[in-house]
Amino acid sequence: MTTALYEPRIPDNLNIRFVENRILINRPAQEVYDWVTTWSNLPKWLPMALGTEVRRGTADVPAELGDELLETIHPELNEKPKLYTVVARVPGKLWTVVGRDVHDDGSLAPAMHAIATFTTFDLGDGTTLFCRLFERLIPDTEPPGPHPVEDPARIQPGLELIKAHLEGTAG
């Protein structure tokens, strides 16, 4: 099984783009799942996140169905803040959030713009394969080509931080 960066085989001229990252973590799957699905840990690893605010739920425990998080994104990435809502949850295995843009006046876009799915695979030896699949709907007004939030090389250092925190090697 390869854990290399995802190499997309899907054309980037569609109205949706995909980026997948994965990493092996020397911790049990439930522990990995609990850590990455806890809202307060997001700024510790996600390189795009400038800040977060829990709108529904509890910051320091794994997020439940319907919980919401407002994520502000580094301005140089030219992305609006996102309100993420947990829409799928299989404890210890899968967690999916959908994000809607938050307009400058605080109103929400009428449709989702991004989907992030985290999966943990127990490899049977106390090691977990953690995968993050990010899907982004592309507006007609966006120039062609990948956006920085779709670059697996920008996300992989974040997964390295998850690994470091969980394995106790974070600085």
TrEMBL record:
One Pfam family this sequence matches: Polyketide_cyc2
Classification via InterPro entries: Polyketide_cyclase/dehydratase, START-like_dom_sf
The protein, known as: SRPBCC family protein
